[in-house]
Amino acid sequence: MRARLLAALAVLLAAVAFTATPAQASPARAGLTATGADLCAQVGYNAGFRGNPLVTAVAVAMAESRCNPSAYAYNGASGDCPSGSTDRGLWQINNCYHPTVSDTCAYDPQCNANAAYSISGAGSSWTQWTTYRTGDYLTWWSTAQAAVNRLSGGGGPAVTGTILASPYLNVRAGPGTAYGSAGHANYGDTVTISCYTYGEYVSGGYWPSSTWDRITDPNTGATGYAADTWINTTNDVKTMVGPC
Hints:
By secondary structure, this protein is of the alpha+beta class. Helices cover 28% and strands 22% of the residues.
């Protein structure tokens, strides 16, 4: 994770992250005994992530570090970081762009999760993480969802929709046609919808809008974003699932 916050915002976020009262841990996960995706789900929940943002957080961490709290990656010198920099811990918090996050914190699972919670705006924006922008995190979506479901108080079942595009609907790595392909969903397939977001406006389909749903098609194995205008649900998707 390499992008930089403005200095003033970094200071503000650090203050929120490390002075606010920590979220209460799920009773079934009070001790840090888990590993891998289960560890990220546990500390992510403790940090404050809930629902679909928690699944996203775990998927990003799996893509970044495989949820290894000791993981690090050295980056060579750049204009912003002439001495180079290091991505650290579960969510690979960069020491140049986020200097308020010490090494002690970065390599501690819970402190790293708390920092990720603040930097991501409580899970509302993951664009600072490369694996989110490229869509690599979607490879770990099912792993992340399973880990979250194992938490007491984790995510519930996703709603379903039916694909209306014929012969198929492209599934993208992000909410727009400029993003890479993540597969396709065939006409008539029943897909699970985990959350929605806003992206490119789509004028075709049945209810043109800029709403994109994050879906999984169990028939084709595709997981990613698809234009909501081509997906039939019993109600407005925004009343059925939360934002991504």
